[in-house]
Every structure is written in C-alpha cells, then in structure tokens.
Specification:
The protein has about 140 residues and is of the alpha+beta class. The chain has a domain of about 90 residues: Phage tail protein beta-alpha-beta fold. It is built from four helices and five strands. The strands form two sheets. A three-stranded mixed beta sheet has the order 2-5-4. It has a two-stranded antiparallel sheet with strand order 1-3. Helix 3 runs antiparallel to helix 4.
C-alpha cells in the first residue's frame, strides 16, 4: 500500500477508536462559541435536585428551562420524541440538567440571538455524501 492509501485508513481508524462508545447514528458536533459563552454562566448556577418518574419529556424540559431563566422555544408538537416519558434523578444546575436530558434523548439545544431553541438532533442531515452520476444526458450534448 502506498502512503496515499494508508493515510485515509489511519484517519478512519483514529476516528473509530476515539468515538467507539458513541452511537453510530449520533455525531459529535461541537457547540458554537456563542452557545458556549451563553451556557458558561448558566452552568455555574447553584445545583437543584430534579426527580421525575414517567414524566413527559417536554414538560420536564420546560420546567428546567424556566428554572434556568432562559428564553426558549420547545419541541414542536408531533416532533420526534416530544411525547416520550422519562424517569431520572439529577442534582445539577437547571441548565446542566436540561443539557443532560437533551443529550440523553437525542435533542439539540441551539442558541441564536439570545433565544434557546430545543429541536430534535438529526445529525444525518450533517453527513456529506458524494454521488457519481451515471448516464447523465447533459454530458453527451455537444
């Protein structure tokens, strides 16, 4: 094998070895600098105890977002996972608890213009694909 063949295999091996514990359908996408800046102070809030048993996830998220004092738009009705029931116990700042619940259930928190948006995390939209077009009639036109 030549060097050009080995390098992509090495990169693939490193990425699989590093993220081996992650679900194959969920990609690790870093948060924006604006997100991290806004979240830093929210994460430092005093911890609170949250205990839910078979609670509707959207209602638990709304409670935590209100406790954190953030302006937010929740999951739209009928969105994937919006009617999911959750059971958990956590002692953390309201925002950290919200982030943890979101991450555990495939939900994204998006920060834009001072407002937090809670949306289903559909990372498959972020995966680039290249398709080779066979039999394209436009190529034959002269």
């Amino acid at each position: 094998m030549n060097r050009h063949t080995l390098f992509p295999l090495f990169v693939l091996f490193c990425s699989v070895a590093e993220g081996g514990a992650q679900s194959p359908t969920q990609l690790a996408v870093p948060n924006s600098p604006a997100y991290e800046e806004a979240a830093a102070s929210l994460r430092m809030a005093p911890p609170r105890q949250y205990e839910f048993q078979k609670a509707i996830m959207t209602e638990a998220m709304q409670m935590m977002a209100s406790d954190a004092g953030i302006s937010f738009f929740g999951l739209p009705e009928g969105a994937s996972g919006s009617d999911r029931h959750v059971t958990f116990s956590i002692s953390a700042s309201p925002f950290t608890a919200l982030e943890t619940l979101a991450k555990a259930n495939g939900i994204s928190l998006i920060f834009t213009n001072g407002i937090w948006y809670i949306r289903p995390a559909d990372d498959t939209e972020l995966v680039g694909r290249i398709y080779q077009i066979n039999y394209n009639a436009q190529e034959l036109v002269r």
